[in-house]
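Hi everyone, sorry if this is the wrong subforum. Our group has a chain we'd like a structural model of before ordering constructs, and none of us has done structure prediction before. Sequence below.
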Amino acid sequence: MLKKSFVPEIAIFLITWLVLMIGGRSRFFHDPGTFWHTRVGNDILGSYGFFDSDHYTFTFAGERWIPHQWLGEIGMALAHEWNGFTTQLLIVVTVISLMFTWIGSRFLAAGVHLSLVAVFLALGISASSTHFHIRPHIITIVGMAVLTGLLIDLESQKITWKTWLMIPFFYVWGNIHGGVLGGLATFALMIFAWMIWSRIGWWRGPSIAYLIPRLIAIFVVSIIVILFNPYTYHLPESWLEIYRSKVLPEIIQEHARLIWTDLTGIMVASLAVIFVSLFVSCWPQRPKATWFIPLVWFVLASQRIRHAPLFAVTALVVIADIFPYSKFATYLERKGSDWFIRRSEVTAFRTWQQRIAFVLSVVIFLVTCLSLEKYKIKIPVLGADWVKLDPEIWPIDLLPDLRSIPENPERPWHFFNEFSYGGFLIFFTPQNRVFVDDRCELFGDSWLKDFVSAENNFGTSEFLINWQRDYGDFDYVLTRNESFFDHAFQSDSDHWKVVKSTPTANLLQRILPSSKP
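Answer:
Right subforum, don't worry. Here is the predicted structure as tokens:
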């Protein structure tokens, strides 16, 4: 048995934090959004303010585009200002670790042994880690977990004044990431489900006549307050535009269908099997409406892989609530196993002293890490400059050459670039303009389809000629080594010369005078 002075949540936090800091050193920076989100935050805090048109590309310069994740982008910019990408990693890993620690505390409070809790959390992290990137999307993963826990508590007769905190909760979430739509939809679904549960006699919570009107009021007010932002109704309008896109599942991996044979698919399927098994084993116990939330997100995850972490975290939160009702828990209890000890009251931490110990430990730990970073003290994992961008993903070796390009007094240089390099160039060479990046709502489905066709060697040369006719000549080119774009430009040695070639990417410059490839 664990000593009463031992706070298992501290162990969960530190182990999760350490694993993610080491594993995420390069891996959390594989998404180009990290770079352009940071640049957007810098521009909002700088001379641009809350801008509403594109100034990063030369293809769609001046077209309407709003930073619809503005609050998250400001946060990313401020974190980067402290000590670069390492501070961004520190904050994101801390947030994720706190989320899994909170989920673990719900398991512990339900009577599940720490060893078994570790197994559940490891499976949940494995099922969702492919979407652990330094991006505002992280807040949607955390928000969905917290929302699920709150809804479960409401259904377990734990309605308090804290329920009204859902309004600022949704407001902050909505200004950080558009995934708040999923949260609001889940909230609305539960309100509707609870009314049905009341009709069929399955409702076990507080008076439905007391609860439902208040929840509907909270839901409506939450929608209204989200409109109080620098872009008013254009903010949710941008979310819906992205959601309605038909081409994103074809060109962006996180919008594609879940592949059941890869590691993420296997982990999601494994977690789903465990969840369903525990769910079914609760029979003839009347199920709570909130127990169905993971099933909804499992269906959505099968359609878009970006929903996999939302299924994973909601499943973990619900499993923590289901477990004491399951036949597996009954079996362990009958055997006298310490893998499960039924508790009379569910509380996240057993004593207030443990809560204070946990909070103080995390605060001291975080302040220590931030101080090491601020004063440029290089200690592995904890200290400054821990992050290492992967040279096989990003053209790091070309940065000196990119930064040495003199500014053009007449206009910014026009860079033709691969799709994944747009965000990289936007951040590291702000004096230039890119051809494309992954802000897909700016370009539109039709334009993106043409780009994908050219990228896959369907009329590549013709597209390049037409694009230069429409948008002006390219001054520089940044291509992936051996890509179809790379072959198209390097085969035209009369018009292009290689500035530098690396195993990852190639930088080419137009041979003046200007001419079409």
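For your construct planning: The first strand starts at residue 414 and ends at 417. The CA atoms of residues 141 and 310 lie 6 Å apart.
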